[in-house]
């Protein structure tokens, strides 16, 4: 365990694993988010997912990021782990740059998925949140939960804020 991990545990930081997915053949997509919150030597896990019939993987990743933000109280520090670097970059500084530029990208065009980007920006306002990457397959329990939820969503099996643990 690194010093950063120990510090995160000492501060009771909530961790979320957020994953979006899309099936190229059918265009159906889904996202899953598993929020892990340590409280009094036990772990509370909240899960949520969503589905779209015609979508893209980047859009589903943005929905997953928004899900993590909307599932957690603003006053609790949050670290969101994702595999998608474009979403991480957008959430860690890209959104304010787009907004400052009148919601125009370097090609002077409106960004794709601006609707979700605006919602993410609003959900991040006034809170301590970081987006970090992890290598696919190395995210442990949180990643497994989020991937399972995204796959379930694509199949039409939706869940909303299921809590697993002694606090449930």
TrEMBL record:
SUPFAM superfamilies: Ribonuclease H-like. Signal peptide: none annotated. One of its GO terms (molecular function) is nucleic acid binding. Transmembrane segments: none annotated. PROSITE patterns: RNASE_H_1. Gene3D superfamilies: Ribonuclease H-like superfamily/Ribonuclease H. Residues 10-155 form the RNase H type-1 domain. Pfam families: RNase_H (PF00075). This is RNase H type-1 domain-containing protein.
